[in-house]
Design goal:
441 residues, alpha+beta, BirA Bifunctional Protein, domain 2, Rossmann fold, 2 domains, 5-stranded mixed sheet, 21 strands, globular, binds adenosine-5'-triphosphate
């Protein structure tokens, strides 16, 4: 059943223009995915909601967009250059590679039964070089997480905006990891996006801020349309946490392929600022008037964009009916749905209907840009297509709109995705309804 759901999601995502395998016409490239027209809208809506909730609507979080390529010393300081690795094992027979910590039996190849070799540490940072010399002097890395760009700008933000503690920096951007075994669609890829906050606090207040962020993460989970009953917290045990973290909670989601990490919340102590300060020899401290300077501590809520997309799709996927009559629809919150409404004339070969529908379409599109014109096939087919991409409303212009029944002049039918119900509304009321539902709150 669960595997079946995964196949349905992957197939719908491709067929309806959400997500395609990366570089597909060249046979693909493992661990890469391309977002198509509806996928990019969905992803942008998710990022906008996050930005709205965690940056714009708060007075204590400042947005950032740091460079992906950083001075390599930053990755030495953070420990990524020496320690950002996973244990790699290779099969002596079929040569397939696996992450040793993901295997139940580390001696036998799960693909062919061959003997697996010794585990060795494999650094997951992608390496490239800057400048014209190819002698290793220009070696740099693609960032494996967005966090680093915020730590190295702590002092810049402090000096330019003068925020008081507690305050945070928030960033959305690409991260790259040369995963040994990318798998499970967009769950584990080599190029992905993160949304992270580094929240700086006084050391003795970390526990209360940790709690507040934990609550805020649940609020986002609900708002973005992830089924809350499929999410659970995992308190990461002492031995399993990163050495610098005093407390970490993984938010896990029941994906069709199992319960796996969706987000992480970590108390990183003063590890990062202290490490960057030691390596750069610049003081990364904070002090209020008359106070002795100290290194702030950090709470880090970390969200994967692509894992959010997958959890949102898995939560929204719904089927109704049986056999050939199955209706598939995505129950996305309207402000997350890639298309807010589809506008159609009842019949596409009646110029007067088309002209009126075009008028309604133009008026609505002026208010909400994510609107489509759909006059392809019969009405039933249009509804099915829109259901599958999660469009919450379909607006149809018919002869009554034109005044065939005078009392219905300038009214339209508004059809609801989840129930299939239709109601008759004035054009203005229909526009207002779509605008209200589509707006981010
Ligand atoms: P995992 O244990 O699954 O490899 P992680 O613990 O290494 O994940 P973090 O370093 O905590 O992950 O990264 C923060 C967030 O970034 C994760 O919660 C996840 O949402 C996302 N993420 C990490 N690696 C990937 C990846 N390879 N593909 C997609 N998203 C990822």
């Amino acid at each position: 059943m669960a595997q079946d759901l995964m196949e349905k999601i992957v197939s719908l995502a491709k067929r309806r223009g959400f997500i395609y395998p990366g570089s597909e016409i060249y046979g693909g490239l493992a661990g890469t995915w391309d977002y198509g027209p509806y996928g990019v809208e969905l992803k942008n809506n998710i990022k906008n909601l996050w930005w709205r909730m965690f940056v714009q609507s708060r007075d204590d979080v400042y947005g950032m967009d740091a460079a992906i390529i950083m001075n390599p010393k930053a990755w030495e300081a953070s420990g990524h250059a020496s320690g950002f690795s996973d244990p790699l094992v290779e099969c002596g027979k079929c040569k397939h590679r696996f992450r040793a910590d993901h295997l139940e039996d580390v001696t036998k190849c799960p693909d062919c039964g061959g003997k697996l070799g010794e585990a060795r540490q494999f650094n997951m940072m992608f390496r490239t070089s800057v400048g014209a010399l190819d002698d290793g002097s220009g070696t740099v890395y693609l960032r494996p997480e967005t966090a680093g760009g915020m730590f190295v700008n702590f002092k810049n933000v402090l000096d330019s905006l003068h925020p008081s503690l507690p305050f945070g920096l928030g960033q959305i951007g690409k991260a790259f990891r040369n995963e040994i075994a990318p798998r499970d669609f967009i769950f584990r890829s080599r190029e992905f996006e993160q949304m992270e906050v580094e929240y700086f606090v006084r050391p003795d207040t970390w526990a209360e801020h940790f709690e507040a962020w934990r609550k805020a993460m649940w609020e986002f989970i609900a708002a973005v349309g992830i089924a809350k009953d499929k999410v659970s917290e995992l308190e990461v045990a002492d031995g399993d946490r990163a050495h610098y973290s005093k407390r970490t909670i993984d938010f896990e989601f029941e994906y069709p392929f199992g319960k796996k990490e969706l987000y992480g919340l970590a108390y990183r102590t003063d590890f990062d600022l202290r490490a960057h300060s030691d390596t750069s020899t610049k003081p990364l401290t904070y002090a209020e008037e008359g106070e002795e300077a100290f290194v702030p501590h950090v709470i880090e809520p970390s969200f994967g964009v692509d894992r959010t997309v997958l959890a949102v799709l898995a939560s929204a996927y719904a089927e109704e009916g049986e056999g050939d009559n199955i209706r598939v629809f995505l129950k996305l919150p309207p402000y997350i749905a890639p298309v807010k409404a589809a506008v159609s004339p009842l019949l596409k070969n009646k110029p007067e209907l088309v002209a009126k529908a075009r008028e309604v379409y133009a008026a609505l599109k002026k208010e909400v840009p994510q609107i489509v014109w759909d006059d392809n096939g019969n009405i039933g087919k249009r509804y099915r297509r829109q259901d599958e991409i999660g469009t919450p409303f379909c607006i149809v212009i018919d002869f009554d709109t034109l005044g065939e029944k005078p009392e219905l002049t300038d009214t339209v039918t508004l059809r609801h995705r989840d129930t299939g119900e239709q109601e008759r509304l004035t054009i203005q009321d229909a526009i207002t309804r779509v605008c209200e539902a589509a707006m981010l709150r």
